[in-house]
Write a structure and sequence with these properties.
By secondary structure, this protein is mostly helical. The chain contains 2 helices and no strands.
Length: 70
């Protein structure tokens, strides 16, 4: 069961990174410093997502969600 949860968390974080990075590239030019900062921000948000999910999964429900109703 844990491996399914881990795959789910990593997949969601990976897609969050891709979505954020693409959004940063679309809004800026790839030669600008701001594009790289946007990509780093996307990576940081994905990393925080993994951390939150890992902490939430240690709760009683076994889910990566903070909601007790999942």
């Amino acid at each position: 069961m844990r491996s399914v949860l881990a795959r789910d968390v990593i997949e969601r974080a990976g897609w969050a990174f891709v979505e954020g990075a693409v959004g940063g590239v679309v809004l800026t030019q790839y030669t600008e410093k701001s594009m790289w900062l946007a990509a780093i921000t996307a990576g940081a948000s994905a990393a925080l997502s993994v951390l939150k999910s890992a902490l939430a999964s240690r709760g009683g429900t076994g889910s990566a969600s903070l909601s007790k109703q999942v």
